[in-house]
């Protein structure tokens, strides 16, 4: 038996769908957003205007950085406690959404903190229902965080990414307005798009895949392979909208199925060197697929994906896509020097064995992981 959750209460899609905020009946809305682009391009003002026209009092909490840290969440939590919203609304990239989710979790359940949250979660003692609504409006097309039950926060002291996966973090409403993605710089299009592709493929080859998520992830993979290069090169609204929708489908898929060692290794490098999550995934993905194809079921699934995408070999196509998107082959060409890599090697190895690596279709030993780390650092097969 498997219980599937395919979304919160609602997914609103379509260019211009931000205007549906006019129909929401919240009294006090705290908007959580990132650096400056959503403010600079007038998106926050538009959202605020819609909400105020519906009678809400709105406060904006901005400044969430890439790879949000525990300290940022704790600061944001104080802002929530002061403002006392009945709705937390994240507008921005995956970092803003993840930070908003963690802030909401600790606001809603004051007995939780970063020291005890994983224990409570492991014992299944975090309530599912909450009083405060969560609305997520992504401006990048990759994390799928607007439809998942997870958040990833960085513990900068331990150089460790801490994923918290619990049902109360699934947003009530996800708004997929592709107009918000038109301001994305090309590099962000490439990196976030590759994150979404990684979600869909890691879920697809995971042994926990089911019929529902096979259709969602297979469709997302074929769609992203077709439309991501168009979104990157031609920057059309149509292409941005396609990728925006497919990345949410990938998010629903991996939330129900799980991921694999691409994410395990990506979190390890991402936390150690503060690298963009999508970039780390993109570097690792083709190597990990090649490695995992030693499993016959994975090899058969990859062959079927090649058929779905109309190509000879999906792994070769991903390599071509990487180079078309300007993604380096290995981490040594992504700004990580040999010394940086060697200095952090033990930490990288230990952390790469954690998290999603535990559900990789091929069980990983430390010895095998050492070969994978060498492969992804030097950008050439070492296994
Ligand atoms: Fe991811």
Mean pLDDT: 96
Low-confidence stretches: none
Helix fraction by DSSP (H/I, runs of at least 4): 40-55%
CATH topology of the largest domain: Dehydroquinate synthase-like, alpha domain
Describe the structure in your own words:
- The protein has 383 residues and is an alpha/beta fold.
- The protein has two domains: 10-179, Rossmann fold, CATH 3.40.50; 185-378, Dehydroquinate synthase-like, alpha domain (Up-down Bundle).
- It contains 15 helices and eight strands.
- The model has no long low-confidence stretch (mean pLDDT 96).
- Residues 143, 195, 199, 263, 277, 281 line the site of fe (ii) ion.
Task: Produce the secondary structure layout.
Elements: E1 10-13, E2 28-33, H1 37-40, H2 43-53, E3 57-61, H3 70-83, E4 87-92, H4 94-108, H5 117-122, E5 133-138, E6 150-155, E7 160-165, E8 173-176, H6 186-205, H7 211-233, H8 237-257, H9 261-273, H10 277-292, H11 296-308, H12 314-324, H13 338-343, H14 345-352, H15 366-378
Parallel strand pairs: 1-8, 2-3, 2-4, 4-5, 5-8
Antiparallel strand pairs: 6-7
Bound molecules: fe (ii) ion.
Residues 143, 195, 199, 263, 277, 281 line the site of fe (ii) ion.
């Amino acid at each position: 038996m498997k219980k599937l959750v395919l979304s919160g209460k609602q997914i609103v899609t379509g260019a211009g769908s931000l205007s549906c905020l006019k129909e929401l009946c919240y009294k006090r809305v705290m908007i959580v957003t990132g650096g400056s682009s959503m403010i600079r391009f007038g998106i926050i003002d538009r959202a605020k205007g819609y909400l105020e026209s519906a009678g809400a009092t709105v406060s904006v909490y901005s400044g969430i950085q890439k790879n949000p840290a525990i300290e940022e969440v704790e600061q944001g939590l104080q802002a929530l406690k002061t403002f006392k919203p009945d709705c937390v609304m994240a507008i921005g990239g995956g970092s803003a959404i993840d930070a908003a989710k963690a802030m909401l979790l600790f606001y809603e359940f004051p007995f939780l903190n970063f020291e005890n949250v994983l224990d409570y979660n492991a014992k299944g003692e975090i309530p599912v229902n909450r009083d405060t609504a969560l609305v997520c409006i992504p401006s990048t097309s990759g994390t799928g965080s607007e439809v998942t039950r997870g958040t990833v926060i960085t513990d900068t002291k331990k150089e460790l990414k801490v994923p918290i996966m619990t049902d109360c973090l699934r947003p009530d409403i996800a708004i997929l307005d592709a107009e918000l993605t038109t301001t994305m710089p090309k590099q962000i299009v490439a990196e976030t798009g590759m994150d979404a592709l990684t979600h869909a493929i890691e879920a697809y080859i995971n042994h926990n895949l089911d019929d529902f998520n096979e259709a969602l992830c297979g469709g997302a993979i074929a769609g992203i392979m077709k439309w991501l290069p168009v979104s990157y090169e031609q920057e059309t609204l149509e292409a941005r909208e396609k990728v925006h929708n497919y990345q949410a489908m990938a998010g629903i898929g991996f939330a129900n199925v799980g991921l694999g060692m691409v994410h395990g290794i990506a979190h390890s490098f991402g936390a150690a060197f503060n690298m963009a999550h999508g970039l780390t995934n993109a570097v690792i993905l083709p190597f990990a697929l090649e490695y995992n194809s030693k499993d016959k079921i994975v090899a058969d699934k990859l062959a079927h994906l090649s058929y779905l995408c109309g190509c000879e070999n999906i792994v070769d196509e991903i390599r071509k896509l990487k180079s078309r998107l300007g993604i380096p082959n290995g981490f040594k060409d992504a700004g990580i020097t040999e010394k940086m890599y060697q200095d952090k090697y033990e930490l990288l190895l230990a952390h790469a064995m954690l998290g999603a690596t535990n559900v990789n279709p091929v069980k990983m030993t430390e010895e095998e992981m050492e070969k994978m780390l060498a492969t992804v650092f030097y950008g050439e097969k070492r296994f």
